[in-house]
Amino acid sequence: MRDVANEPERSVHLTSATEAARAFRHHRIRLVRNTVRVLISGSLLRMLMILICSAVFWIVLFGMFFEGFMFVGMYVDLKNAIIEHLFGMFFLSLLIMLFVSTGIIVYAGLFQSREAAFLLTTPAATDRIFAYKFAEAVAFSSWGFLLLVSPMMVAFGITVSATWSYYASFFIFLLAFVMIPGSLGAVAAIGVANYFPRRQKTVLIMGTSGILLATGFLIAQVVTTPGSALSTDWLGGLLGRLSFSQHPLLPSRWMSAGLLAAARNQWADSLFYLMVLTGHAGLFYLVAAVFARDLYRQGYSRVQGGRSSRRRSALYGIDAAFHRVFFFIPRPVRLLILKDLRTFRRDPAQWSQFLIFFGLLAFYFLNIRRLSYDVQSPYWRNLVSFLNLAVTALILSTFTSRFIFPLLSLEGRNFWVLGLLPLKREAILWGKFAFASGISLVATEILVVFSDLMLRMSTGMIALHLGMVAVLCLGLSGISVGLGARFPNLKETDPSKIAAGFGGTLNLLVSLVFIAAIVTALALPCHLYFAGQDASELRTFVLSEERFRFWMAVAIGVSLVIGAIGTFLPLRIGIKAFQRMEF
Amino acid sequence: MIELCGVTKTFGPKTAVNQLNLNVRAGELFAFLGPNGAGKTTTIKMVCGLLAPTSGIVRVGGFAAGSQQARQLLAYVPDQPYLYEKLTGREFLRFVVEMYGLNPRQAEARLVELVETFEMRDFIDDLCENYSQGMKQRVVFASALIHDPKVLIVDEPLVGLDPRSARIVKDLFVAQARAGVAVLMSTHLLSIAEELADTIGIVDHGRLLARGTLAELREQLQSRAPLEDMFLQLTGGTRPLANGRFMVPQGEST
């Protein structure tokens, strides 16, 4: 054995930056190629379904935006300042969303993934690893953004008869734009890892509160604007209040002004904003890369060493109360529900999103009277109440798709534990179903009662809505638990990726169809009845009191049947698949 | 080759590694033993540059741990190996080859040699997502050796390996050490340490309690007992018996 412990190695061949860059480039090409091959060879049907769903989503959005622009175009010049204001607000919202989502993805990719630990032991430079993970995070966080923005911008281009160069420049604008919030999000993620390595939850809670406050402020601006809603004065006043979105230092302003200039064929202006945008995109990326070069490795060490070792309060009082209240559920199932509740409670990423979704909805419902919906005619109040209900159900479906569907997949490597538990396998699924529908019922019933009280709806209608929400909650929970068991992804640990997969997408689609069926079945007779109350000339086409009662009874029967099918069929499919599953 | 001088690592109020001094020379196979939570993995992660020491110095080949030079010399095989699910084993090895800037022709020959050594011919061109734990472990060992590291760090090396693969890996450790590589191996399997290690270090509560060859350890502890008994004497003193009574290492039941 040679004693060279203290002697530096004389000749260490170092991997050059070019070699590392080439290695990452080849690596990414191989990964993408293999992923596409697996997708195509694995299930052509699945691939086709994803493509068709995306295309349908794109076309529906395009149609909505196109009709919207045509409608607005009847009253205002689409190339004028109002549209610039609206685009400014829209891109500012996207800027904030991309900042948050890219920041979270970069944090998970750089500090919590096993891949990061592997890469950090290779000779690749730290900023090169960052570049590789950053590109992945930006692509992952902004593909949905592209799907949302592209139909809007294409619809706008067609409405204002823009030339082809507008469409071409749009993609360059978009690429530069996503780099800015992405880079800032990455800087924030690296900062959190370095300076708050044991405070991720605090940061997340503060971030959630910030978003809620900012959105609350915006809604307050809308509802307190004087004047009759949607009148010219009201719109002028509102745009004045929201003029901060037009601040010349905001990238969202450069984006909207640049795109509008391109649509107007003002190429000098458009190029100016494009240069400002790309210049800043490059600068911010550089800042993020320098941050990563100097602080990534240190931050990684701090995060790994900063795992909280504090003992968790088991809240045994709550457990005991839960057992007493739900004494009728078998004890093993109750224990499984408690396990899921604890996991939910200890994961702020889950309940913070839940809070944002339903908090914003509650805020809107509380302001219904300020929007003067309650003094409108019964027809309008009925329409608004059903719209509120549909929105609540849609938000609930995103919740069940995002959190309930992945529940069973997240058991992952511990799946065999569930399989070996001394209880029937179907009881495990019933437990998950009880957990999902319990949380959903509590959140949505309160919201819907709120909404109806604010709208001064009759007791009968409130009772109808409560029943309808119960049917929706049970159905959406049944769909998510059932399909979650039918299409589990036991290899993935990230719930957002599980939800974004084939099973998750199918779950969301089935949920949307279910909501549409239930809401339409009940809203249709109500709509026809109240339309008659409002417009006497239509009386011959609408329902009389007596026929209304009959058709409502039919509608309730139909919705109950749809609800039962929506709840039990997916659960039955899930239970069958779960019973066949090998561990 | 691996040098830790007065290294301490704290996680909040907990001290995981406490004033640790350790040298692993080129050509030495060092077995790092200790109970769960003794600080073995923390030490290994500091050597790999994944964790920064709270105080003290960690060097690899004379370079600061975590520097590019240190990483270029080092290969790390963690207890839970990471592979890209959507790459084949061969593609993963090529990625490592490119990452270390190796000559493609020489590296390809080395790759073929390692495929033969670890008997990976049947699955090397399948996607890693279809591999068993043992297959993954073999690919990771091959990736660690493909760039001829000067320092090989292995955390629980035999997890998931069948007896034949385990034999191959054990022979490789010895061969690597004899070729001048410093091998730092953390394990719970005392028999492996007894069989392979040139030097054994026993760590508990972040402190190195004993270090030396098996003979030196016996001399230090004035014991002729097997390594297992010496280990228990150093780290706890007693061990449970099946009937619920406890026995001190000298064999007197209480």
Descriptive overview:
The complex is a heterodimer of chains A (583) and B (254). Chain A is mainly alpha-helical. Chain A contains 20 helices and no strands. In chain A, helix 3 runs antiparallel to helix 5 and helix 17 packs antiparallel against helix 19. Chain A is globular and about 90 Å long. The N terminus of chain A is likely disordered. With 254 residues, chain B is an alpha/beta fold. Chain B folds into two domains: 221 residues, Rossmann fold (3-Layer(aba) Sandwich); 31 residues, no CATH class. Chain B contains nine helices and twelve strands. Chain B has a six-stranded mixed β-sheet with strand order 6-7-8-3-9-10, sandwiched between helices. A four-stranded antiparallel β-sheet of chain B has the order 2-1-4-5. In chain B, helix 3 packs across helix 4 and helix 3 packs parallel to helix 5. Chain B is globular, with a radius of gyration of 19 Å. Chains A and B meet through helix 1, helix 4 and helix 10 of A and strand 1, strand 2, helix 2 and helix 3 of B.
